Every structure is written in C-alpha cells, then in structure tokens.
C-alpha cells in the first residue's frame, strides 16, 4: 500500500531534515513520532475510515496528522486559511464526521461533527475501504466544487524515486499543487521549508535562511517579486528551479525572470484539482510552449481546441455537482490550447474569453502587452457589455506613479497599435490601487463596468 511505503521511507530517512517550521528543523524521526501519536488519537476517537477535516496550514502537526489519517483509511479534507463560515459550509458538503485543528503550540483541538453520510458517490467510495482526499476548487468560475480523490492513485506516481530537494511550501495546504509538493518532498527524503507567510519578504527570507532549492508558485507572485526588488536584498542563489502554474505566464515576465535568474531552471507546471499534476516540461526557459509526456499514467487529446486529459489519478467525482468526464474517462479541462508539432501553448480558460463582435480576445494576451507599458505595475483585462458588439475590452491598471488618465490612455493606444488588433485594445480604462489576486496568488477574473 502506497501509504505504508511512505511510512517506510519516513523511517528510512529518520535522521534527515523533513521540515522547517517557524525556523525550527524537524527530522523525519520527529514526524514519525507525531504520526504514531496521532494514530492513537484516531483509534481512541474511532475515526478510522471516516471523513475528517484538518483545519490549518502546513506544520509538522498537520502533515503528520494527514499521513496518519490516510493510513487509517480516512477521507481527509485539508482546509487552510478559510473563514469560519466557509469551513462550516464545506463540512456540510462533504458530510464530515470529525474536524481537527491545532493551537500554535501544537495542542490538538478535536470536534465531532457527526454528519450522516447521504451522498451516493461518497457512500460508494467508502465501500472500497480506500483512503481519500477532498479538495475544493477555488470557485473562481462559480460555486466551489468538492472534488473527491482516491488517495491510492493520487499518490501512486510518487513510487518512482526522484531528486531529493529542499522545497518551499508556497501553494496552499488544500491546493492540488501544494499537496503535490508535500508528498513529492517526503517520498524523496527532501525538506519542506514553510515560510512565516506568503509575502514576498517572508518567502525570500525562508529561501535565504534555509537554502531552498525549489520554488513552486504563480506568475502573479513572481511579478510581485520583481516589483519588490527583494532580489537585491536577499541571497536567493540556492534556487535551482522555479516551477510556475495555475495561470498564464506573461511572456515578457518570463524573459525578465530568465534575465534575473540565469542559472535557475524555469519550468511551467500544469495541473488541475480534478486530475492531479501532469508531467510537463517547458521546451526552453524562455518559451511558453510545453510538452506533456504521455505514459500509462497520463494521456491528452485536443477536441475543438480544448485540452482533455485522461489520468489514472483523476478524481472519483464531484460531491456537489454534475461530473464532467467524457466517455472513456476523458476530463474536459476548459483550457484552450494551440498545437505546435508535439508541443502545446495554453491560451487560457474558455470561460475567460471575451467575445467582441464574434472575434475572440484572450485576456492574458492583452495583459502581456499592456504590462510592458512604462509605469504599469499590473493590469486586469475584462469584458463590458455592449449593445453593438456584445462586449468591449476594458482594463484596470495599477500604476507605480500617479498619472493623468487621458494622457495615459493616449499613450496606451499608441503603444498597443503595432502589437494588437483594434478590437483587442481596451476601449475603457481606469486606475485602481486594488490588487487583482486572492490568497492563492492567482488573478481573479471579473466582468463589469468602470
């Protein structure tokens, strides 16, 4: 069983550093002791095989509990940085029976929720006696979807030995990318470095102090890193690889990152909560083209310009909405792509496309141009309804220095004319001091008015 294999590796790596939390190092032996401790709690509370929420962020306690729950056949719902209301609603959807959180000193706080299992999909899954993981989608396109995974196929890919690295836990504890980073690190005897928070300064401090080699993050965060100029204040030379994903990487930003980190491998990641993280590689450090290495575990196909994925680690299904698997187990990702031989370029979400008089506008393409205008820190492109064309393109800008709106508008038009078709150039613009991302450091798309 894959969880038993992980326990074996934790015992094998006993003396090695497994985690750095609050600048304190924890060995694999320390983690194993905590797993044994929580196994007794699971038995005493009769939680084995039941559904349990872990409320909190990465720590030695939450990670050890996660592993212990999986080993006892539980369905685990990790929840980090969520409001009390959201936690309550998510617990109802999953029909949770228990929840656990920790105080800052590691003291365990247990609550019996006691929901009765009524969901047909969950009842059917529980009959397999397999451990499970539930992940909620970000809800950026509507209601958050409760995604049920069988933990066995989800973790199966980690049987293959990979490089041991010191990785930072940037993506959240309840994010598919964060879970991937966690288990990749532990299965390969690496060290997970947990920053004090996910601000640029805290992440840079953690990289410098603890010699982090791998950073998996988002283009939005990397843009903030460049704007902050923190690379002038902190030594980040231990970095060997930066994996980026969850949203489109602007090409100008990728070039700037390559100039700033010439010795670091920049690699695009691709994953979905429904199918896991796919084996993707960028064809070069400065290219947005990717190649997905198909195998017995993963296959891809393009249908009407949209990427579909078939994966052995695909979800069991949604707990709170209709499933979207096509015949044969193909998952419709909602991502539009262009093919370049055996490589792909991800254009963006189908739901993000702006239809202007029948012509398609990809917000990420327009933002890539607008972001290169002098004095622009960040920009968000979105549609506004129009009686004639259906929609027009609009944009909100966050500037480095104050500027007159009319003069900036003229400067923007002049800059865009040689680079974008007229219908792609924003017709309405405004300035704002707002940030355009949420806690997951991913742009939040909007529709509306200026």
Please specify the SSE layout and strand pairing.
Blueprint: H1 2-12, E1 17-21, E2 24-27, H2 28-44, E3 51-55, H3 60-71, E4 75-79, H4 84-94, E5 98-102, E6 108-112, H5 120-126, E7 132-136, E8 146-150, H6 151-156, E9 166-168, H7 176-187, E10 191-194, H8 200-210, E11 214-217, H9 219-228, E12 241-244, H10 251-260, E13 265-268, E14 270-272, E15 276-278, E16 280-282, E17 290-292, E18 298-303, E19 306-311, E20 317-318, E21 325-326, E22 330-340, E23 343-349, E24 354-356, E25 359-361, H11 363-370, E26 376-386, E27 390-399, H12 405-416, E28 428-431
Parallel strand pairs: 1-10, 3-4, 3-5, 4-7, 9-10, 9-11, 11-12, 12-13, 27-28
Antiparallel strand pairs: 1-2, 5-6, 7-8, 8-20, 14-15, 16-17, 18-19, 19-22, 21-22, 22-23, 24-25, 26-27
Give an overview in words.
With 450 residues, the chain is an alpha/beta fold. The chain has two domains: 349 residues, ANL, N-terminal domain (Rossmann fold), CATH 3.40.50; 79 residues, 2-Layer Sandwich (GMP Synthetase, Chain A, domain 3), CATH 3.30.300. It contains twelve helices and 28 strands. The strands form seven sheets. Strands 2-1-10-9-11-12-13 form a seven-stranded mixed sheet, sandwiched between helices. A seven-stranded mixed sheet has the order 6-5-3-4-7-8-20, sandwiched between helices. Helix 1 packs across helix 2 and helix 2 crosses helix 3. The longest helix has 17 residues. The model has no long low-confidence stretch (mean pLDDT 92).
Shape: globular
Q: How many DSSP H or I helices?
A: 12
Write down the Rg: 23 Å
Helix content: 25-40%
Number of beta strands: 28
Which second-level CATH architecture of the largest domain applies?
3-Layer(aba) Sandwich
**CATH topology heading of the largest domain:** Rossmann fold
Provide the residue-averaged pLDDT. 92
CATH class of the largest domain, named Alpha Beta
Task: Bin the strand percentage.
Answer: 25-35%
Q: Could you list the spans in which at least 5 consecutive residues all have pLDDT below 50?
A: none
Main beta-sheet annotation:
7 strands, mixed
Our measurement of the CA-to-CA distance between the termini, rounded to an integer number of angstroms, reads 55 Å
Structural domains: how many: 2
Structural class: alpha/beta
The CATH superfamily of the largest domain is known as ANL, N-terminal domain
């Amino acid at each position: 069983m894959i969880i038993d294999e992980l326990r074996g590796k934790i015992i094998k790596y006993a003396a090695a550093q497994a985690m750095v939390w609050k600048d304190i190092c924890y060995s694999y032996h320390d983690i194993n002791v905590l797993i044994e401790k929580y196994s007794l709690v699971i038995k005493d509370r009769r939680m084995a095989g039941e559904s349990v929420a872990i409320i909190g962020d990465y720590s030695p306690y939450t990670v050890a509990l996660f592993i212990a729950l999986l080993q006892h056949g539980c369905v685990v719902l990790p929840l980090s940085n969520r409001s009390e209301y959201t936690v309550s609603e998510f617990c109802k959807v999953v029909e949770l029976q228990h929840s656990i959180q920790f105080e800052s000193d590691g003291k365990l706080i247990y609550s019996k929720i006691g929901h009765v299992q009524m969901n047909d999909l969950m009842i059917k899954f529980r009959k397999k006696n397999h451990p499970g993981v539930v992940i909620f989608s970000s809800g950026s396109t509507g209601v958050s979807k409760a995604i049920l995974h069988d933990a066995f196929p989800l973790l199966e890919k980690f049987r293959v030995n990979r490089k041991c690295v010191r990785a930072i836990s940037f993506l959240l504890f309840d994010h598919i990318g964060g879970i991937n980073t966690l288990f990749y690190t532990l299965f390969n005897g690496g060290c997970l470095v947990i920053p004090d928070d996910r601000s640029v300064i805290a992440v840079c401090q953690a990289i410098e102090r603890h010699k982090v080699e791998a950073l998996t993050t988002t283009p939005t965060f990397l843009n903030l890193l460049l704007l902050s100029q923190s690379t002038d204040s902190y030594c980040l030379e231990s970095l060997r690889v930066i994996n980026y994903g969850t949203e489109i990487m602007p090409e100008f930003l990728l070039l700037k990152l390559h100039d700033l980190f010439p010795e670091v491998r920049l690699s695009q990641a691709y994953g979905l909560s429904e199918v896991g993280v796919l084996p993707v590689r960028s064809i070069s450090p400065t290219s947005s083209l990717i190649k997905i290495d198909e195998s017995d575990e993963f296959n891809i196909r393009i249908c009407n310009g949209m990427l579909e994925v078939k994966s052995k680690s695909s979800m069991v299904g949604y707990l709170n909405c209709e499933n979207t698997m096509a015949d044969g187990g193909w998952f419709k990702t909602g991502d539009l792509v262009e093919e370049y031989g055996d490589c792909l370029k991800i254009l963006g979400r189908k739901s993000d496309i702006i239809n202007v008089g029948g012509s398609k506008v990809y917000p990420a393409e327009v933002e890539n141009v607008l972001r290169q205008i002098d004095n622009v820190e960040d920009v968000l492109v979105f549609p506004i309804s129009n009686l004639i064309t259906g929609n027009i393109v609009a944009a909100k800008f966050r500037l480095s220095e104050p500027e007159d709106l009319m003069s900036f508008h003229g400067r923007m038009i002049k800059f865009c004319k040689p680079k974008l078709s007229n219908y792609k150039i924003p017709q309405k613009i405004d300035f704002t001091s707002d940030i355009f991302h949420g806690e997951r450091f991913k742009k939040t798309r909007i529709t509306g008015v200026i």
